[in-house]
Amino acid sequence: MINTQVERRIKPVTRGIVKASDVFGRFKRERRHEVRQPDIQGQTYVEQVKRTREMLRSLAPEKALEVIEFHKGLNLFQALALVQRGGKLIVPNDIHDRILMKTTDKESLSQNYPVWTGTLVIYEKPDKPFGEQVVFSWEDIRTAINYSISFKVPKQFRGKTNCALVIEHPDFELVEVGKNNFEIPRISKNHDRRSRQYELKPIKGARIKLIENFPKKLVGWYNKDPETKIPQGEPVSKSDKARYLCRLDSAYLGPIVRGFDFYDKKYVGLYNWPSFGFGVAFIGLGEAASKEG
Q1: How far apart are CA 102 and CA 229, in angstroms?
Q2: CA–CA separation, 71 and 281 (whole Å)
Q3: Which residues lie below 8 Å from residue 153, measured CB to CB, with a gap of 6+?
Q4: DSSP for 224-278?
Q5: pLDDT digit string (tens) for 27-84?
Q6: What is residue 196's three-state secondary structure?
Q7: Torsion angle in degrees (nearest 10) through CA of 77, 83, 89, 92
Q8: Among residues 38, 91, 241, 247, which one has the fewest Cβ atoms lying within 10 Å of its Cβ?
Q9: Residue 41: helix, strand or coil by DSSP?
Q10: pLDDT score, position 186
Q11: Burial class of 223 by CB neighbour count within 10 A (0 to 12, 13 to 18, 19+)
């Protein structure tokens, strides 16, 4: 369950709460801004992902907001099921950070946020070093369902304390290994979903970023990592440059939530149950390229 100290500070979001098995039961498709599809034939999947990320990060926040496709009420399980249809990238945290901080269209922001980002974060209990794996378990009290997600920690990160591991979509997926129990393997794109035979090897071009000096306090203001915009380091005073972090006092494994109404644009949620139906923002591979410049 959510730590009571954090729970007192943040209202739980109750809309869009669904079972993991109810993949598309409670969301509607939002209006999409149609854009010209660039020619990406001949590019590998990894090249398409890299190109899309680069183009999205090069766009002005207002332009980025135009090409992003928002879906309300999606939890993490639904979001990943949707992108498995192919050709979509879950928008990373750093893009949402730019949009939230620089976009003046408050109506658009209120209509589309909060969302799960495509930036997955894994951390352990404060002062507990990474072991062979991290397991995040919770009971969704709204549905009385118990969930768990596990991740096998690469050897180079084992033993590190008060750090966080960051993986950007699509370099991770969820594999159901039991009823409402999931693993995050770093998988090959050529795995066989029907036979559940997974190649537990890193996707070519994928990487895991280490955030050192990840905050131990459950809530507080911190400076942000330049690349991922994840809070890190020692507590600082409230400012436009700082971000307000909410974390658990236990292990966690899930995406960042942005745009929640508690501390609004500067809030970085890393305590929320992945079964919450916040919403997700997608972009088709290559779509941002048509808006370059």
Answers
A1: 14
A2: 6
A3: 122, 130, 131, 132, 133, 134, 165
A4: E-TTT--EEEEE----SS-EEEEE-SS-EEEEEEE--SSSGGGEEEES--TTS--
A5: 344 343 333 344 445 567 778 888 898 999 999 998 998 899 999 999 999 999 988 7
A6: coil
A7: -10
A8: 241
A9: coil
A10: 57
A11: middle
HSE-CB for 266 with a 13 A CA cutoff: 15
Please tell me the total number of residues recorded for the chain in this structure: 293
pTM to 2 decimal places: 0.81
Report the DSSP pairing between strands 181-183 and 145-152: parallel
Cβ–Cβ < 8 Å for 257, 76: no
The predicted-structure confidence for 98-157, as pLDDT tens digits, reads as follows 999 998 888 888 889 999 999 999 999 999 999 999 999 999 998 999 999 999 999 999
Which among 149, 195, 146 is positioned nearest to 173, based on CA atoms?
Answer: 149
Tokens read off for 165: 């591991």
